[in-house]
Amino acid sequence: MQNVCVVGVDIGGTEIKAGLVDGNGRIRARRAVHSNSTGRREFRRSLDQLLKDLRKEMPEGYRAAAIGIGCKGIINTGNCRVRILPGPFRFLEGQPMAEWVRSGFGITVPVAMNNDAKVALLGEQRWGAARGKSNIILLTLGTGVGGAILSRGEIVQGSMNVAGHLGHISVDFLGPECYCGNSGCVEAFFSARAIEGDALAALRRGCDSTLASFAADPRSLTCRDVFTAAGRGDPLARSIIRRAVSALAAAMAGMAHALDPELFVLGGQIAESGDALFAPLRRELFQRTIGIVGRRIPVRKTALGESMGVLGAAALAWNAANTQQ
Ligand SMILES: [Zn+2]
């Protein structure tokens, strides 16, 4: 496999990133461009330019064996098209992404595409926190909660590629209604949006807290501030985090009972909270699974950091390249 690399393309809400990645997970060259959400034609022009520029960076003596794409939404992996993507990038639905990237990079090679959380899981499995494992659950903890499942080495796609919407596991059947139609979804309790909302609601009720200074400018309050205040012993912040962590632990216990994973990998902005999150979460997950699972399932933070999207797409591309041979 010497002198072969793949192209990983990460289509995000603010940037499209692309990289040339070798078999050891080293990014030999990388490029990024603002992801143009003004329309299909403009988006394609940005993508085209990005890939042309990246190709010029190809190391001497190397060739690209495959292209992998990670993108938000529900992806039809069979034909590399976005099936459902609500929001500003809806114009990508149904577009022939494989043709776009082949012509942009100027090469005819296998192309594979999948949802961003699913490719992130493949990257973490190949080069990151889940190296060598075959049964993994990845959760992305940000504004909402996303996820992906690897079972016996295969990404669980489900019958229509919808599998992995782990933020919509209900932890309270009488809980608040979610836009998905379910009620009490875990992301209504454990997500940046939920934790910030809980803190602001408590401040509006007049609860005493070191966070009270945010009441004047509620929009400046972040989930991280709530974790930091909890770490310093603020009682309000601690009770909010305790409840949110319990909701997440309950959802993860459900996943553990359904899927029996070797480990959980947590990514996204809230996973940066360190022991304030991981210590109580590990403890409660163990308590909730001790009877049937009967062991401590490791819970780790993602290891690939900022490059997770590009490396994940590259891992998908390596899978496609190796299947070809
Ligand atoms: Zn939901």
Quick overview:
This protein has helices at residues 40-56, 97-105, 116-127, 192-204, 223-231, 235-259, 275-289, 308-324, and strands at residues 4-11, 15-22, 27-34, 63-71, 74-76, 81-84, 111-115, 136-141, 145-151, 154-155, 263-267, 299-301.
Q: Topology, please?
A:
Layout: E1 4-11, E2 15-22, E3 27-34, H1 40-56, E4 63-71, E5 74-76, E6 81-84, H2 97-105, E7 111-115, H3 116-127, E8 136-141, E9 145-151, E10 154-155, H4 192-204, H5 223-231, H6 235-259, E11 263-267, H7 275-289, E12 299-301, H8 308-324
Parallel strand pairs: 1-4, 4-7, 8-11, 11-12
Antiparallel strand pairs: 1-2, 2-3, 5-6, 8-9, 9-10
Helix pairs in contact: 1-2, 3-8, 4-6, 5-6, 6-7
The structure holds zinc ion (ZN).
Description:
The chain has 325 residues and is α/β, with parallel strands linked by helices. Helix content is 36%, strand content 21%. The protein has helices at residues 40-56, 97-105, 116-127, 192-204, 223-231, 235-259, 275-289, 308-324, and strands at residues 4-11, 15-22, 27-34, 63-71, 74-76, 81-84, 111-115, 136-141, 145-151, 154-155, 263-267, 299-301. The strands form 3 sheets. Strands 3-2-1-4-7 form a 5-stranded mixed beta sheet. Strands 10-9-8-11-12 form a 5-stranded mixed beta sheet, sandwiched between helices. A two-stranded antiparallel sheet has the order 5-6. The longest helix is centred in the last third of the chain and has 25 residues, at 235-259. The termini are close together. The model has no long low-confidence stretch (mean pLDDT 95). The structure holds zinc ion. Zinc ion binds next to loops.
